[in-house]
Amino acid sequence: MRRVSLTAKEKRREVLAKLEKFGYDLYDQLERGILPDIIMPSRSIDNIYYSPELRQYTLGDKKIRRSASNIRHLRPIAQLVWMAYFVHELTASQKTSTLRDVFYSAQAYDIPFKNQDESDDIITDLETILGCTREDFNVFPEERSAVFGDLTIEYTIPNYEGKRLNLTSHPDGVMIGPALTSAEFIETNADKVIAIEKGGLFTRFIEERVHERFKAILVFLGGQAPRSTRYFIRRLNQELGLPVYVFTDADPWGMHIAMVIISGSANAAHVKELTTPDAKWAGVWASDIVSYKLPSDKLEDIDVKRLHELLRDPRYKGEPWQREINTFMRIQKKCELEAFSRYGLTHIVDKYLPQRLKDLGE
Q: Can 57 be counted among the known catalytic residues?
């Protein structure tokens, strides 16, 4: 993902330089008759901690060493070297690839991965070694998020440089992919971002003109938001100064979707510039199930187990997290965003949304 302080060309040169240095260092060891060593930050659980200063999970100082002198390390080292070569070619040619493409591309070079999880893990290793992200290498997951609202962007990718687009141009929203996350923000009349877990409600908000009525940029998260979407939300917040409100189902999994946007995840503890620490979980809350008498389901054992895990997570120590976890425990119920349709299709926009934004100081 491109840092705003660098142009696209500068960022590409920086990434290529890091990849080439990685290769030169390995080559230099071989030239000196040394079996190569690779030192990288440990991503083990005991080296991941929550930083109150950064307001996100981050890696500690522990390192691990992979050495070609250890037969068990030869396979991951070979995979890592190939991965660096492959993403160097992608970056240099300004082409993109999906995580799935990378997995299959390795087979053409006789670099087998047992499954895509192993391939993804090697990409993550390369991220930690170089201090880059897979998006810097032009590797992206399948797109499933979208955005809609009065924001004019200007593309920076090859063949589209200088072309502008307003994000109200497509009635289904614009997919959040590589071209959009790297685009420049030109102009907006919006004064907030509303991020929505579910596609049905995203469509309802567009139909009900929420972007105009509430001067909002609407972001469809697609469940747990992809990293590119979290980065895009961060940019909207930091570059444009727009407050962010996250709407999810009223269950422990919805709470966590909001928290990952706010403070990141343990899996991405090695990545900065993904979090929006001042974003607010706007609901649906457990207390809303009671206040609005919403249709609900009983919490399952796995939901209760997850709530106990959240209670032990330092990120959930404040409000409204503690209050809502305790309410979930007390009422033993959960519900979906769509539950407001009990009162009519537009109730969530006409009544709930303005009241919740008011409650949160909007």
A: no
